[in-house]
Amino acid sequence: MSTWIDVCDKDEIDEEDVIRFDHAGKSYAVYRSPEDSFHATDGHCTHENVHLADGLVMDDIIECPKHNGRFNYKTGQAKGAPVCVNLKTYAVKVDGGRVFIQVG
Amino acid sequence: MGDKGMVIVGAGEAGVRAAFALRERGYQGTVTLIGDEPHLPYERPPLSKGSEEAGTVRAIVASERFAEAGITFLRGQRAISLDLARHALRLEAGEILSYERLLLATGAAPRRFPGLATSDRIHVLRTVEDASAIRRHMREDGRVAILGGGFIGLELAAMGRKLGTAVTLFEAQPRVLMRGVPEKLALALQARHAAEGVELLCGVGIETIADGESGVTIGFADGRRIEVDAVVVGIGAQPNTRLAAEAGLAIDNGIAVDRHLATSDPHIFAAGDCCSFPVTAYGGRRVRLESWRNAQEQGSVAAANMLGEAASFDAVPWFWSDQYDLTLQVAGLSDGATSTVGRTLSPEAEILFHLDAEGRLLAASGLGPGGAVARDIRLAEMLIARGTRADPAALADPSVKLKSLL
Question: What is the ipTM for the molecules in this complex?
Answer without folding.
Answer: 0.89
